Amino acid sequence: MTNDPMPLLGYDYIEFYVGNARQAAYYYRTAFGFDVTAYAGPETGVRDRSSYVLEQGELRFVVTAGLHPDHEITRHHHLHGDGVKDVAFAVPDAVEAYEVALERGADPYRKPETIESDDGTLVLSAIRAYGDTIHTFVDRSRYGGVFLPGYQPHHLPAPRPAGFTHIDHVVCNVEHMDEWARFYADVMGFTQLHHFDDEQISTEYTALMSKVLWDGEGRIKLPINEPAEGRKRSQIEEYLDFYRGPGVQHIALATGDIVSTVETLKAQGIQFLYVPGTYYEDLRERLDWSRMDAEIDRLAELGILADQDDEGYLLQIFTKNVQDRPTVFYEVIERHGSRGFGVGNFKALFEAIEREQALRGNL
Ligand code: FE2
Questions:
Q1: How close is the Cα of 247 to the center of ligand 1, in Å?
Q2: pLDDT for residue 310
Q3: Which of 231, 190, 197, 201 is nearest to 211 (CA)?
Q4: If you classify domain 10-156 with CATH, what class do you get?
Q5: Is the whole model's pTM more than 0.85, yes or no?
Q6: How far apart are CA 217 and CA 339, in angstroms?
Q7: CA 3 to chain centre
Q8: CA 20 to 30 Å from 297, out of 2, 92, 166, 229?
Q9: Same topology for domains 10-156 and 164-360, yes or no?
Q10: What is the pLDDT at residue 50?
Q11: What count of Cα atoms within 13 Å lies in the side-chain half-sphere of residue 152?
């Protein structure tokens, strides 16, 4: 779209601030099947942090840890635990993206910076989003270096890739959903793709509301969750308590073959939420299996969920939290036409989450 005031080309990377980047990189490499491709740290002239770049398909994650107790990264980790700091977008013009965002009400985080080096020209800028999360705008169209200046190639291929292709969506938990839905509409020109209210997303115990904002083209989809009044503490409140504020709740990673991806992840130690057998008895009746290229017995063995709508179907599964605090987790998703989020699975899913929450004494 030529008249889009804030053109975004897609995700550039997602950066996590963690307690130990070396060990986090090992986890994403051996458990999730990412290749380690670049490193920045004291050995590359970066004195205050240690960062590893991880790639799989179009996915690019960065795990970063601070090396000093009073560093901003270390303080972020002290407050939030391991979590997402930066959901970075590739843009055609990082100066203009920043200026337009500020004009439209965003708070600045990093002024546009043009970095010239032997590898070419890189332009970066960043704005604040929910909580301590930021969005960096990256224009690497005239840059040939490895990731960012300060990084050097670091080739550690995954022993067994998991078949992830790209990011499907990135979900945040916030206190005030409408405020952040407005932010993405006003600042980025996003529109609302879906709205789920607490009637649709409630169980006996907890409830939440969710709006899905997207770029209109499907490259970027950002669901925003808010806790709703329930009889007990909702999973969103548990997150907000333990993350100490708003932040990224889960990242959905797309695969073309969820059965083989989940087999690989399980063999490499990833744990998923447990789905009871009754879910599949219900699913056999609820979906039109003649319209789907999936075998329900295989899905049941692996605990994969399925949902269907007018446009097609999707298969999905959710990991348990991937760090000590009950905050960030992953979704694995295989889409066949459906642009939905598995609304038919919300109840079964939240009951599974609540079983885990109860084990932690937080329900
Ligand atoms: Fe999701």
A1: 14
A2: 92
A3: 197
A4: alpha beta
A5: yes
A6: 11
A7: 28
A8: 166
A9: yes
A10: 98
A11: 8
